[in-house]
Amino acid sequence: MGDMGNFVRWTCLVGMRSRMTWLVSILTICMLLGAWLAAAFSARQPLVVALDVGISGVRLSLLFLGLAWVNEFIGRDIERKNLFWVLGLPISRASYLGGRVAGILALLAISSVVLCGALVLLGTFASWGYGHSSRPYLSVSGLGLVMAGIWLEILLVTFFALCIQAVSRTPFLPMVLGLAFAIAGRGMHGALNFLLYDEDAPASVKAGVLPLLQWIQWLIPDLSRLDFRPVVLYDLWPEPEMLIHVLMASGFYLAGLYVLAILIFSHRQMD
Fold first, then answer.
1. CA-angle at 65, arms to 218 and 114, nearest 5°
2. Mean per-residue pLDDT over the chain, rounded
3. Are 61 and 46 in contact, with CB atoms under 8 Å apart?
4. Alpha-carbon distance 265 to 222, whole Å?
């Protein structure tokens, strides 16, 4: 097994035993329990409501896991000077960072599969006794597309945090900026559409905020386009052209962030 493979294996083993992982796991269980309880407030669509709330909970859980693992495996290595021992070996910085990133991707993939099973349980058994309620469309392809969209969204945020971690000397700054990036990616494009096309948008806000948002939209991807939950909730599939465009744009953005992180980390002065 090569150097990168060893880092992947170590990252997965440490990640499964991390305190932060167990803390987020407990939070996830609480959110899924909240999704099950939320279904009780709908007599017509308890299963759909439970699945909808559950998907939001899964997205938040994976988001916190991705940011926590970036801080756990890279930030703490730098903070505790463990990285000096690694770089003292005949191992390149690119191999170290690539192994860590691949390990985080593997952990996120495993977590996505486990949480997908929890969503299936919610969409199947959270009917609260209403046997004739509307049921979600729990097909393998539909659930796969939903989880792939969530996984890509979390990767975009995680890779952005990785770029910040590669240059940051302040603990938890990548987590804070990663959360800000996730919120901006989810809300900024909706705010932009409101200012552009809604007649009720205040003219003063348009004049002051709209030019800034139009410039920032080229830097921050629209993460809401990776939310494919209508597929399993209402059997509403995205247009193939739009789906291909979104997946390609996400792939290019991820590749750009990864290359940028490698370049920054490779030239960073370690003191």
1. 110
2. 86
3. no
4. 27
